[in-house]
Structure formats: C-alpha cells, structure tokens
C-alpha cells in the first residue's frame, strides 16, 4: 500500500492551525502504531432504516486493511450486507485513529488463515481457522478511504486526515 496523502481536516470553528503550525501533520506511521497496538475498536454501521449501530470488536490491521469477525446473524453483519460503508475507531480517545471505509466479507482460505494468525498473535489466543467457518462467523476486511487522527495534547495543531487511493 502506498502512503496515504495527509492534509488538515476541515473543522471550521475549532481554531485548527495550518499544516506547518503546532505539531504539523501527523505521519501515517503514527496512525499505524495505534492501529496495531489497540486491543479494542469501535465499529459503526448503519441499519437499513438509517439509524447508526456501534459495537466494540477485536480486530487487526494488516498494513492495508482492518480485519474483524462477527457471527453471521449479528446486526453489524446484516448492516454491512445492506451498506458496506463503515467507520472503525481505536478505543483511545486521547489519540484516536478513525477509519472510514468499505467493508467486504472475505471467504478466501488463505485470507482467513492470515487473519486468524494475526488475531492469535495479537490477543494470545489459540483459535483455529475453523473458528472462521463462513456459515457461523463472517470475516470482514475494511479497506480505508479516509482516516483521521489527532493528539489530545495538541488538539488544534495535530489533526490530520489521510486519503487513500481508491
């Protein structure tokens, strides 16, 4: 994956500084560190009637996509089937990373094995790939289109928006 383009997000009324003021733009590596270190994430989807739905999930960043799994009949999976646009955030509100992207249900055996290996390494679990049986637990990969990050200690000088090639 190529490095996403970094800019300041449009936040009128918040006193956001220019890109060369405060901390400046955060490097993408800053966001990757937090995506890899976060233990819990919030996933937001949209119900068919337009109401939001947010749930905590375990997940893993593989350098290109954010991965998680969920039971097939879950509300989040039903929402993703209707509308694959999602938001994923790290749990740390002091230095959040927010991903906006498109979710895809993945069934390729190699991808499932790669995801279960990431989960087992990150969470010190011993799941077998059979845990990801597509009839029971769907595996989802979110490809980001935009990401946002900021440091609480420099609220006006650190906000950064990253845009990915689509």
Automatic annotation (TrEMBL):
GO terms for cellular component: cytosol. One of its GO terms (molecular function) is oxidoreductase activity, acting on the CH-CH group of donors. Keywords: Oxidoreductase. Pfam families: PNPOx_N. Residues 33-127 form the Pyridoxamine 5'-phosphate oxidase N-terminal domain. InterPro entries: F420-binding_dom_put, F420H2_bilvrd_red/Heme_oxyg, Pyridox_Oxase_N, Split_barrel_FMN-bd. PANTHER family: HEME OXYGENASE HI_0854-RELATED (PTHR35176), PYRIDOXAMINE 5'-PHOSPHATE OXIDASE-RELATED FMN-BINDING (PTHR35176:SF4). This is Pyridoxamine 5'-phosphate oxidase N-terminal domain-containing protein. It comes from Actinomadura macrotermitis.
